[in-house]
Amino acid sequence: MPASIFGVLARLGLQALTTYNGESIFPLAYVQATGCFIMGVGLRMKEPFGNFYGPLYTALTTGFCGSLTTFSGWQVDIFNSWVNSGQFSRGGLRDFMDGLTKTWVTLVLSLASLKFGIYVCGVAQPYFPAPRPPSKNARYTLTILAILTYAATLPAYFFLPHNFRHQATAALLFSFPGTLTRYLLSIKLNPRLKTMPLGTFMANSLGTALLGFFHVLQGLPSAVSPNTCALLQGLGDGYCGCLTTISTFAAEIGALTGWKAVSYTTISWITGQLLLLVIMGSSFWGGHVKEQMTCSFQTS
Asked: Where do the TM regions start and end (predicted)?
């Protein structure tokens, strides 16, 4: 629970920090690279984490890194480049190149950051002695604190200023449900296919489709209410962002061999883009939905 919350906060914070006029690289590149680097550290520390406190490994990899990185956001970012949703003065070839850049740069950065995290952790690990496992009382305390941390997201949504809702507090509400859905899908479906991790594929595809749908709702000509708009933003940033993951995706690509890795990557990418073509493309080109967000976050 807290790992999902802090993962979302880290993603939103990094995106806000790296979004500015004249930026040299698209903001999600920082998000995916950072999450994959930490995932590499987690993978290298799997055995020590397991000996110390097993849930810590799941919290770091599935919880924090899975919530920090986002497959659905990556797919929507690429599709927005294809359709030039920012209305930049450029031709169709430039739109294609922008989408292609976001595709391969994300893949290269994610895989390289994952390997770099594994390497750095391998170099540093011998200099840090393994701590003693926590006592039973300490584990119970951690569990209670985790539950209370997620419970605090509800009053945070209602009692913090309204303009915080679309920025963070709405996303925090839906962070853990998204992570839990991904975790359950991976447990139930990943063992069923040897050629690809079916659970992660389903989570990434479902999250991408939902994020595209929420973007369509935010682009309706008759703008929805500010509270509804904030909840839609929270569902996109929180639920879809945590339901989908690049860090686990990159780790699974690295674990697969030969054409299995290539086919898993290709099928996942094509499926995401086809889903957005059907959901967002048909809405945009049908003339009923604007490519830019029309709902307002302002409250009276």
From this structure: 25-43, 55-74, 104-128, 140-160, 166-185, 197-217, 266-286
For the entire predicted model, the pTM comes to 0.92
Handedness of CA 151, 202, 184, 68 (dihedral sign): negative
CB 280, CB 143: distance < 8 Å? no
Contact 34, 109 (CB under 8 A): no
CA distances from 280 to 28, 195, 270 (A): 20, 30, 15
Structure tokens at 160: 């913090």
The pLDDT tens digits of the residues spanning 96-140 come to: 999 999 999 999 999 999 999 999 999 998 888 877 888 889 999
Q: Cα dihedral angle (249, 99, 13, 109), rounded to 10 degrees?
A: 50
Q: Number of C-alpha atoms within 13 angstroms, CB side, residue 207? A: 38
Pairwise CA distance, residues 21 & 170, whole Å? 26
Q: How far is CA 155 from CA 19, 135, 149, 170, 232, in A?
A: 29, 31, 11, 11, 18
Rounded Cα distance between 219 and 85, Å, is: 11
Residue 240's contacts (CB-CB under 8 Å, 6 or more residues apart) are 70, 72, 73, 178, 207, 208, 210, 211, 214
CA atoms of 121 and 127, how far apart (whole Å): 10
Annotated domain spans of the chain: 2-285
DSSP 126: G
- Of the candidates 127, 25, 152, the one whose C-alpha atom is nearest the C-alpha of residue 77 is 25
Cβ atoms of 113 and 33 closer than 8 Å: yes
Q: Contact at 8 Å (CB) between 102 and 31?
A: no
